[in-house]
Design goal:
single chain; 164 residues; alpha+beta; D-Maltodextrin-Binding Protein, domain 2; 19% strand; globular; disordered N terminus
Length: 164
């Protein structure tokens, strides 16, 4: 995915930019005071964020971040792509200001602040028609219009203060 596929004034950017700007202003005072936002991309969470064989970081979350960067007062410094566990440890140490494509959990909420989800992905199991599913389809759910929270991705910001 090339970031040029998403023009800076696209509808998703217009919807996300104010939310991200509020998050950054409220939760990332230390990063803004330092003059840059340290973004930690995940190495292998395609199609949302991943590192290509050529070393480029790409994906839906990168396209969205590129679209909103022009509306931010501080530059975004992209750190080297890493596995999620390393990124979360760096966030706990206050070495990361922004992470994308991350599901909120109570443990993560202790040191990260989350935006509202910017994408929701319904998770389903797919089997051949000749295979009887282990869990029968119970028909339409009464809450079918609600997306499950566990299948949402949002931006998160480290809430720990940076020390120098």
């Amino acid at each position: 995915m090339a970031s040029s596929a998403c023009p800076p004034k696209s509808l998703p950017a217009l919807l996300i930019a104010p939310l991200l700007a509020v998050l950054l202003a409220c939760r990332m005072g230390a990063a803004l005071a330092a003059g840059e936002i340290r973004f930690a991309p995940e190495k292998d969470y395609g199609p949302f964020v991943y590192q290509t064989a050529e070393g480029r970081v790409e994906g839906l979350s990168i396209d969205i971040l590129e679209a909103v960067k022009s509306g931010l007062d501080s530059p975004v410094l992209m750190l080297p792509a890493q596995p999620l566990a390393a990124i979360l440890e760096a966030a706990r140490r206050g070495e990361v200001d922004l992470i994308s494509s991350l599901r909120p959990t109570p443990e993560r909420s202790a040191y990260l602040a989350f935006t509202s989800p910017y994408v929701q992905v319904p998770a389903v199991l797919v089997v051949c028609q000749s295979v009887s599913p282990a869990v029968p389809d119970s028909g339409p759910r009464s809450d079918a219009r609600r997306e499950p929270r566990s299948n949402s991705s949002s931006f998160s910001a480290s809430s720990s203060c940076r020390t120098r």
